[in-house]
């Protein structure tokens, strides 16, 4: 049989044959404890056998077959199967189970399948993940399945359109609490959970262990006179309990529930609402109904900026939107993944602005989320929002910037196109019409067509069914009196994706007034084709800056005419509107990535104007972009000067920032990221030791680790220093930081050891794999990393074949030799691609994407070397 990688055709064939009435799943996880300190955290059984540590999983599936006598299969990935029974007939596990599938022959009209298996605990964040807290030795479990890892925990039909009700029971250690999608009770040593509504396998969930648990409740009067009561819970590891601000989590949760009830007119359908913050999590969060899981880094151990709290609130609301978009109504297959992720991404920002204290959420969306989308949409792997997902490996890689952020941007454009009222009324009809069912693109378009009266088919063809991003550039012609004679918007598309889309945009005209750059004229227009004249702006005073896509209504790359670009060079910091400023920064960054603006010019703009940025999220994004500009787009011979300029600028802003402010904290972290000279490193060392102080700057534990990484990378913090710091912070977070810093040290032996840990061993957990890769790849260590370019291409095929897809993705993406950024590396990449045309498509996609980033960086370096200012 084909094995783990279920294809779309197989899924459609099975869905046409079968329908599922229900699951009973019994798990026994008492084996999770015992020898916790000495078993490698759950990788092996702890008995010296080298075998994986396992738990018992017994599943009963009741399902129907509309062609009696036909054959099909159930999904299960497990080390062993003890027994299989189909309709009371015992089957030989050795004959019907191949490690990934259970063959089911001679099906009846109504069937009952019982599978008794030994499933393996995970250390990769896939399936049932087992984590041993180094601080106190406690064991914590949680599940994570999307897109298809429920089969690592129980036998099932692992595809989103075979929905069914689930009943779970779990046997766990006596001192533990267990949570599931439904409300649970313990009796006779067994936790039993209320049957779920019909849901897909990938959003079932179990969390178990000695978690710290806080409760609250939400009450809502419904329009029919009834009262909706939702029990709320929030949980985390005991070691994080002192930092857990559950009150703020509950505040945002209640605000979100109010917002979605106001706008969706469909009461939350899944009973309770628990939110679990769990360790070593691969994602931001997962929308399991009734039991949402989050990465525990959203519990802040040290001081963070408002942007971190905003990001957490956005994720809470994103997952909550999934209760309707994704859980209540689910895509039929992963082709229409956007039907949940794009909507949740849009609704996260929409509700953030409409319901919480983070009223500037659209600025973050324009500056941060869209940057992710623009990058993804220019890669060779770009795809329409509605994608062609052939199999599960394709699906795994399509949780990307297009499916999330571009899709959300397209929905923002859709709201401008059809109007907010029609959009929300369409959503309401969609929920009521398809509750607990599965949908395709056409199902949503039909309700939006009903509510808006618009041609949704044409809109979908342009926006959902074609790939690539358009560029919009203003063209201004002045009359003899210096007024606008004609203002046009020019639209361009890449040759590879030539679609010119219809854009509803706002065009803003700006001039300097009393030292400020302010908007004095605005018009909305429908931009179509290569050139659109905006007649409403004729006769306006000549602008110094023309901002197409003002207010960020559409999805496009903004370009500037020469006059506008000159104004930004002189007065970007004087632009008073924070959203307009964020859009300009984003446009300038895209120009840098496209080799239209030299990297040193972008760095210069950051040095001159970032200190005046009021939005902390935008400021932190500028810091990240400046880092990237220096590492990847700056000419190699200018990098030392650029490093010095950024470090000097960061230190100056750090010293001038308001004491104790979030801006001061952001500049301190940026200084750590760019520090390389002796004076900068001395200062970081002194701040750590307490022999130097900056008024208002509290060097808490998280900031200590941020300072230690550059010290380690430049040979100023050895293994002993890092061991001492871990003793000071002997926690799971501290261990991740220490591992990253250890791999960052500037030694050939260190790099060789890290390489062996990542490539030749599978002992590291997913979190420690990520930390080791982050430390290994240091921009200041290009010469040390150069020997690994050839080694990388020799091992990635084996890594893809032998590791889980999550770990393989970490290694293939994270170890790509991007820092030995030379034409030789590009040639080696091309040689591998040419010699491995038959490699798995998902692996080739990752290498092609990394190649594109490298080639883009080399083009940027050539632009930067051409002479700085004026080379665009």
Any overview of this molecule?
The chain is α+β, with helices and mostly antiparallel strands and 872 residues long. The protein has 28 helices and 28 strands. Strand 4 and strand 5 (89-91) form a beta hairpin. It starts with 7 loop residues before the first helix and ends in a 7-residue tail after the last helix. The relative contact order is 0.06.
Give a brief description:
The relative contact order is 0.06.
Summarize the helices and strands and which ones pair or pack.
Blueprint: H1 8-17, E1 18-28, E2 54-65, E3 72-75, E4 80-86, E5 89-91, H2 93-96, E6 101-104, E7 110-120, E8 127-132, E9 139-144, E10 166-171, E11 177-180, E12 184-187, E13 190-193, E14 206-209, E15 212-221, E16 227-236, H3 246-264, E17 273-278, E18 285-286, E19 291-295, H4 306-322, E20 330-331, H5 338-355, H6 361-376, H7 392-397, H8 402-418, H9 420-434, E21 438-439, H10 441-452, H11 456-463, E22 471-478, E23 484-492, E24 503-513, E25 516-527, E26 531-533, E27 545-550, E28 557-558, H12 562-571, H13 578-593, H14 599-609, H15 616-633, H16 639-656, H17 662-674, H18 678-689, H19 701-713, H20 719-728, H21 732-744, H22 748-760, H23 766-776, H24 782-785, H25 788-802, H26 805-814, H27 823-835, H28 841-865
Parallel strand pairs: 1-10, 16-17, 17-19, 20-21, 22-28
Antiparallel strand pairs: 1-2, 2-7, 3-6, 4-5, 4-7, 8-9, 9-14, 10-13, 11-14, 12-13, 15-16, 18-19, 22-23, 23-26, 24-25, 24-27
């Amino acid at each position: 049989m084909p094995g783990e990688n279920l294809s779309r055709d197989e899924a459609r064939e099975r869905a046409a044959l079968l329908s599922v009435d229900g699951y009973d799943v019994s798990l026994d996880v008492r084996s999770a404890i015992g020898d916790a300190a000495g078993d490698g955290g759950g990788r092996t059984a702890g008995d010296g056998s080298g075998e994986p540590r396992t738990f018992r999983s017994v599943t009963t599936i009741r399902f129907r077959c509309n062609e009696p006598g036909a054959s099909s299969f159930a999904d299960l990935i497990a080390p062993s199967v003890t027994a299989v029974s189909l309709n009371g007939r015992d089957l030989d596990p050795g004959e019907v189970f191949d490690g990934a599938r259970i063959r089911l022959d001679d099906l009846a009209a109504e069937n009952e399948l019982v599978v008794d298996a030994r499933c393996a605990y995970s250390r990769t964040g896939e399936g049932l993940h087992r984590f041993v807290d180094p601080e106190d030795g406690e064991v914590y479990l949680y599940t994570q399945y999307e897109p298809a890892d429920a089969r690592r925990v129980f036998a099932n039909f692992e595809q989103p359109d075979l929905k069914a009700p689930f009943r779970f029971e779990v046997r766990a250690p006596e001192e533990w609490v267990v949570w599931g999608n439904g409300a649970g009770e313990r009796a006779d040593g067994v936790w039993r959970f209320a049957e779920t509504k019909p849901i897909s396998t990938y959003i079932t969930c179990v969390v178990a262990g000695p978690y710290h648990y806080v409760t609250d409740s939400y009450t809502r009067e419904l329009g029919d006179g009834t009262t909706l009561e939702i029990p709320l819970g929030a949980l985390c590891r005991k070691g994080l309990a002192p930092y857990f601000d559950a009150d703020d989590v509950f505040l945002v949760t209640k605000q979100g529930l109010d917002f979605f009830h106001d706008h969706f007119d469909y009461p939350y359908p899944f009973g309770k609402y628990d939110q679990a913050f769990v360790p070593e999590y691969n994602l931001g969060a997962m929308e399991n109904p009734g039991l949402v899981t989050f990465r525990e880094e959203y519990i802040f151990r040290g001081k963070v900026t408002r942007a971190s709290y905003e990001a957490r609130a956005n994720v809470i609301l994103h997952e909550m939107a999934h209760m309707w978009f994704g859980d209540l109504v689910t895509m039929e297959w992963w082709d229409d993944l956007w039907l949940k992720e794009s909507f949740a991404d849009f609704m996260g920002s929409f509700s953030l602005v409409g319901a919480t204290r983070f009223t500037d959420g659209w600025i973050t969306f324009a500056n941060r989320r869209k940057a992710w989308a623009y990058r993804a949409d220019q890669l060779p792997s770009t795809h329409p929002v509605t994608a062609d997902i052939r199999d599960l490996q394709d699906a795994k890689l399509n949780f990307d910037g297009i499916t999330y952020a571009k899709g959300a941007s397209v929905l923002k454009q859709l709201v401008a196109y059809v109007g907010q009222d029609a959009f929300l009324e369409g959503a309401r009809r969609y929920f009521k019409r398809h509750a607990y069912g599965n949908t395709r693109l056409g199902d949503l378009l039909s309700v939006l067509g009903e509510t808006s009266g618009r041609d949704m088919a044409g809109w979908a063809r342009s926006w959902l069914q074609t790939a690539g991003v358009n560029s919009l550039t203003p063209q201004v012609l002045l009359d003899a009196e210096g007024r606008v004679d004609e203002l046009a918007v020019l639209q361009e598309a890449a040759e590879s994706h030539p679609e010119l889309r219809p854009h509803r945009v706002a065009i803003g005209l700006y001039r300097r007034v009393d030292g400020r750059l302010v908007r004095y004229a605005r018009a909305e227009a429908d931009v179509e084709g290569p050139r659109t004249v905006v007649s409403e702006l004729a006769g306006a005073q000549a602008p110094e800056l023309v901002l197409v896509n003002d207010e960020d209504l559409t999805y496009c790359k903004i370009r500037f005419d020469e006059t506008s670009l000159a104004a930004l060079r002189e007065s970007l910091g004087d632009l008073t509107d924070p959203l307009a400023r964020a859009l300009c920064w984003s446009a300038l960054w895209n120009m840098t990535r496209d080799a239209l603006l030299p990297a040193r010019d972008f760095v210069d703009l950051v040095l001159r104007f970032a200190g005046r940025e009021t939005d902390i999220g935008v400021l932190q994004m500028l810091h990240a972009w400046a880092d990237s500009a220096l590492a990847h787009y700056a000419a190699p011979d200018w990098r030392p000067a650029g490093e010095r300029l950024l470090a000097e600028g960061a230190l100056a802003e750090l010293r001038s920032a308001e004491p104790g402010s979030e801006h001061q904290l952001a500049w301190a972290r940026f200084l750590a990221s760019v520090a390389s000279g002796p004076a900068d490193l001395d200062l970081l060392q002194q701040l750590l030791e307490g022999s130097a102080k900056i008024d208002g700057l509290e060097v808490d534990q998280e900031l200590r680790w941020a300072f230690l990484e550059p010290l380690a990378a430049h040979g100023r913090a050895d293994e002993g220093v890092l061991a001492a710091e871990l003793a000071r912070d002997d926690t799971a977070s501290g261990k991740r930081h220490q591992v990253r810093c250890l791999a960052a040290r500037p030694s050939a032996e260190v790099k060789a050891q890290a390489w062996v840990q990542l490539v030749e061993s599978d002992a590291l957990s997913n979190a420690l794999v990520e930390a080791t890769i982050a430390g290994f790849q240091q921009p200041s260590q290009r010469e040390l990393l150069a020997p690994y370019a050839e080694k990388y291409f020799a091992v990635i095929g084996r890594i893809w074949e032998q590791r889980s897809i999550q770990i393989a993705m970490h290694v293939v993406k994270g170890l790509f030799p991007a820092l030995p950024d030379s034409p030789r590396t590009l040639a080696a990449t091309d040689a591998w691609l040419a010699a491995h045309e038959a490699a798995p498509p998902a692996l080739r996609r990752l290498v092609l994407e990394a190649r594109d980033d490298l080639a883009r960086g080399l083009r940027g370096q050539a632009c930067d070397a051409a002479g700085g200012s004026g080379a665009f």
